[in-house]
Amino acid sequence: MEKFTTLTGIAAPMPLVNIDTDMIIPKQFLKTIARTGLGKNLFDEMRFTQDGAEIPDFVLNKPAYRKAEILVAGDNFGCGSSREHAPWALLDFGIRAVVSTSFADIFFNNCFKNGILPIVLPPEAVATLMADAQKGANARMSVDLAAQTVTSSDGQVFHFEVDAFKKHCLLNGLDDIGLTLEKVSAIDTFETQATQSRPWV
Amino acid sequence: MIGPKTLYDKIWDAHVVSTSDDGTCLLYIDRHLVHEVTSPQAFEGLRLAGRKVRAPEKTIAVPDHNVPTTLDRVSGVIANEESRIQVDALDKNARDFGVVYYPVSDVRQGIVHIVGPEQGWTLPGMTVVCGDSHTATHGAFGALAHGIGTSEVEHVLATQTLIQKKSKNMKVEITGHLRPGVTAKDITLSVIGATGTAGGTGYVIEYCGTAIEDLSMEGRMTVCNMAIEGGARAGLIAPDEKTFAYVMGRPHAPKGAQWEAALAWWKTLKTDADAQFDKVVTLRGEDIAPVVTWGTSPEDVLPITGTVPAATDFAGGKVEAAERSLAYMDLTPGMKLTDIKIDTVFIGSCTNGRIEDLRAAAAILKGKKIKPGLRAMVVPGSGLVRAQAEEEGLAQIFLDAGMEWRLAGCSMCLAMNPDQLAPGERCAATSNRNFEGRQGRGGRTHLMSPAMAAAAAITGHLTDVREMM
Questions:
Q1: Looking at the partner chain, which of B41, B152, B233 has a beta carbon nearest the beta carbon of A34?
Q2: Which B-chain residues 177-196 have CB contacts (< 8 A) with chain A?
Q3: How far apart are CA B103 and CA B179, in angstroms?
Q4: Do the chains contact at B198 and A79, CB–CB below 8 Å?
Q5: Considering only CB atoms, which chain B residues are within 8 Å of A15?
Q6: Do A50 and B28 touch (CB under 8 A)?
Q7: CA distance B329 to B340
Q8: Does the distance separating the beta carbons of B159 and A184 come in below 8 Å?
Q9: Where do the H-state alpha helices sit in A115-172?
Q10: B110 forms bridges with which residues in the sheet?
Q11: Of residues A141, A157, A145, the one with CA closest to residue A116
């Protein structure tokens, strides 16, 4: 996994609430057996007409936001399915951070496994950053994971909370299977005990 | 932890392998269910790292999302190349890694969340995960069950554990009793309507109350299935005599002395009297009506007697979302929900593809014909549900009514196989999501119970099933 330390980039505003995983990556693109190449289909049905033409009004099709690296989104971003194709598509497009008031649980976890930082901030802070993102390409936002801050283009700093373990893994680009396998003796012990106490499992 | 515990606390505590200083836990996973869409990258990851599946005997794989449901699939060839590649990949991965497998050709094949309980893999007190958000279904047995992403699928395959932080406890109590014509689907949709799709975020829900106790296991699975639509990590229901009776004798349920030992533990799996919940939601069973969704979020729920709302009925970010939904659904504020005409009916899915769902639909459809010109399909949740429905004469009722009687799979719930809506096509569906494009690009979905979908099939418009009873 790629590390996430600091990021300064264009932020695209998506104020719609409840942006679901089916919007982020529609099911016809889940038939892949690879993790890469999904960026071209990110937000496919919002971004393209049925015959593949760009829908000019969609934010990521606007000249100012075509190279966005941050999304500022409405409440409950990523609700719906467990498909990790959603963060894979965001990452493949170039999005490394998403700011919202809340995220759906599975999507939130999936982001951290892929080097994407989901940032939860209070409604007033998200509203300020949404307005900042709406200024276009000159408004570059900065994210500092170590300091746990988002800084708007005009220098307003917002502090965010992040789970210490998830932060550690993201800052260092750690593969958590490797970390867990360091505890394999604890798993062995648990399994031996469980086999006795709950032999039917 | 010490002191009174919730059911969630008890299952959690029984599965903690280790705890870090910051409260992050390594949680042992008793059952890992696998399907073809979210697993290929995980198995590939194992191969690349030279890792094995740690507990193949606790890993159960079945193809469901992509499989065709038409009778010609017995030829064994899936026409769509990408779908075929995914199913073939699962065949190969199951074989190479030695996990339990029900291939398309097996009568036990079906939707993973229907197969697990049916085969007795899902048992009270277990931790159950799957790379699918509707894993919450298994919570009906008093199991801690939730969806995970593909990276976590790989983690569980390699280590039989998950890195987790504990969620908060939420209680959803349905008091009293349901009125006639009101079902488990109406409970779960009404809860989401009341709490919103983010109302459960950060929580594990325990559903309780007399109206929940009244439900069959099938109904309880319907309720827990949609916990995720309310944003919760999982939903669960304390096991009781109905649970034990359902589990007993299933192929992978414990037998003999092990059954007795299991039963003794399972009977302790209930929330202590003075345990604390972080959030409580209470609905009166008598207040719940047959409901439908009007919009493109599962929280867009109204009683069938209602009218389409206006965007201005909402506040904040929901105004824009409601405007978008109304345009997408092509609905006019103020119109009666029962005036909404439909083109298609879909009865099936992990929410409502079990035998009791088919019985409820058949009870309404018996001796009737569907509206001429309507497309209606009934897709059983597993090969065994299909066989049972045929034995009970339900299949014949559907066929006589003019409906299609399909083979088992996820089908039009998410339309990864050929069962899809055309742009603008409107569907009465017993599935779980009414998102834009969910059942096919431009397709319009109204969620409801199997009985309500059956009623709509007869009239050709959304219908209050109570008028047909």
A1: B41
A2: none
A3: 41
A4: yes
A5: 317, 320
A6: no
A7: 10
A8: yes
A9: 123-133, 164-172
A10: B382
A11: A145
Using the CB atoms, write b or e for B281-305: b if 16+ within 10 Å: bebebeebbbbbbbbbbbbbbbbbe
Closest in B26, B83, B317 to A180, CB measured: B26
Task: Give the helix, strand, coil percentages of chain B, each rounded to 5.
Answer: 40, 15, 45
Structure ipTM: 0.95
Place of tokens 């992403």: B149
pLDDT at B255 over 90: yes
> Who's near A47: CB < 8 A, 6+ residues apart?
A54, A55, A58, A60, A61
CA angle B78, B84, B87 (to 5 degrees): 115
Inter-chain contact A22–B438, Cβ cutoff 8 Å? yes
The three-state secondary structure class of B217 is: helix
- Alpha carbons B284 and B263: distance in angstroms, whole number: 31
What is the DSSP pairing of strand B291-293 with strand B375-378? Answer: unpaired
Shortest distance between the Cα of A49 and any Cα of chain B, in A, equals: 10
Q: How far apart are CA B166 and CA B450, in angstroms?
A: 35
Mean pLDDT of B400-410: 98
Domains and their CATH numbers in chain A: 6-172 (3.20.19.10)
Q: Can you name the residues that pair with B27 across neighbouring β-strands?
A: B16, B162
Minimal Cβ distance to A106: which of B126, B147, B259: B147
Separation CA A27–CA A80 (nearest Å): 12
Per-residue pLDDT tens digits for B52-80: 999 999 999 999 999 999 998 877 779 89
What is the per-residue pLDDT across B440-453, written as a single tens digit (0 to 9) for each?
Answer: 999 999 999 999 99
CA angle B392, B345, B325 (to 5 degrees): 145
Cα radius of gyration rounded to whole Å, chain B: 21
Nearest CA in chain A to B131: A82
CB atoms within 10 A of CB A109: 25
B57 touches chain A (CB under 8 A): no
